[in-house]
Amino acid sequence: MNRHVVVGVDGSPPALEAVRYAVDDAMRRDRALRIVHVIDPWVFDQPMATPPSFHDSLCAHSGIVLAQAAETARERVPGLPIETATLTGTVRKELLDAAKEAEVLVLGSRGLGGFLGLILGSVSMGVAGHADCPVVVVRHVGSEAHAEIVVGHDGSPESEAALEYAFEEAGCRGARLRAIYAWQADAFLPMFASYTPDQGRMYDFGKRAAQEQLAPWRDKFPQVEVADSVVRAHPVEVLCQASSEADLLVVGSRGRSGVGSAVLGSVSHGVLHHAYSPVAVVRSRPSRPAADGGQGR
């Protein structure tokens, strides 16, 4: 199946930033671009509050939003295959349905308010981590490329999908991958804050776990330069700081609690709010083999 890169738009400047990111991603992946705008059906169910022409006005507005997004895409990459679609349904459900046939779903970090809004922060949060494909939430795209991808991992099986996506992105961009394993000892056993030997043992444990998890991915992507680090700090703080010099920050949708917890749901939400770069949230796919047995997307 020839999957698309799908981007959701609502006419806002952040949504157009998402379109530009999606265009670049489609080019890297040699995929067509699909631009979607969602009209929530609740606005049609207000017969006492809306004039008869209200439905036609919303459809016309959707066409304008899609045309503007398509023009932005063509200006960035002339000749890119593009299709547009107006979808009717609850925004979150329609985007999740669109993600089923997508290779990547791209959204803005915020959008228009009011009943015409689509890419609200709450929508991005509701879709990221629940879609069948990686979801990239575009907060800001810098004018200069850093040639670096940052990924947070925690040694758990749930972070394997994030690592796979991060290695693939680094490979197709020709970028370095910075893999961060962050943990807080006092988050799971407060006594470790007082005992240096225990802290040292936990650091060594985290370092071994990080190296073991990265090893098969290094073997599968030998062309990717990897800089790995184990840091005792709050994952959100560390990952957001690293994102200031990255083209993309990749996290899992959830992870394990305790030591090495770098991809908890709370962490992915935290970086979506505070990262300096676009953020890719990659849902765990437990049915897929790990790097030493997988075949890639």
Task: Give your account of this protein's structure.
- This protein has a 10-stranded mixed β-sheet, with helices on both faces.
- The model is unreliable at 113-120, 255-264 and 293-297 (pLDDT under 50).
- It folds into 2 domains: 4-138, Rossmann fold; 148-282, Rossmann fold (3-Layer(aba) Sandwich), CATH 3.40.50.
- Strand 6 (148-152), helix 5 and strand 7 form a beta-alpha-beta unit.
- The protein has 297 residues and is an alpha/beta fold.
- The chain has helices spanning 13-29, 54-76, 91-99, 121-127, 160-173, 196-220, 235-243, 265-274, and strands at 4-8, 33-39, 82-88, 102-108, 135-138, 148-152, 176-183, 226-232, 248-252, 279-282.
- Helix 1 packs across helix 2 and helix 5 (160-173) packs across helix 6.
